[in-house]
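Now for our specimen.

. . .
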Amino acid sequence: MRDGSTRPANVSIHPDPRVQAVLEQGREAEMVQAIDRLRLVHNTERKTVYILCNIPLDLAVDELVTWKQLNGDRRLADALAECDERGWDALSLAGKELHRLFPKLWTTKKAAGRLIGAGSRDRIGRRDPCKKIVDIQAARPSS
């Protein structure tokens, strides 16, 4: 990690060190090379790289998250897509309304309420992949 801390990871290795070296060359080295091709060191524009594996690489990492944390709760994104299909301009975030409008996504009022409960708004804003895509697209200069 960039801050000097370490986190353990379970990685399968081959008992023969020669075979392991070949595996690492085709696995870790290729991933590092692909990231290096982004020219991150001497680039004036900040770039974000998502490494979607649990194999330790010889790179400084700022944050480790689980797939579930990165992907977030898909129900809100699905509800927004359904709103768009129905031609609605807004989505109520009240648990009672989410349950009433989308019973297949939230089977109870309580389940819908937990999504918007204490601290959830911050999690939705930080972890919702749809929001990240919108933010990235909004930051790109138009051609």
User: Anything to note?
Assistant: Residues 77 and 125 are 12 Å apart (CA to CA). The two ends are 37 Å apart (CA to CA). Residues 70-139 form one domain. The first helix runs from residue 17 to 26.
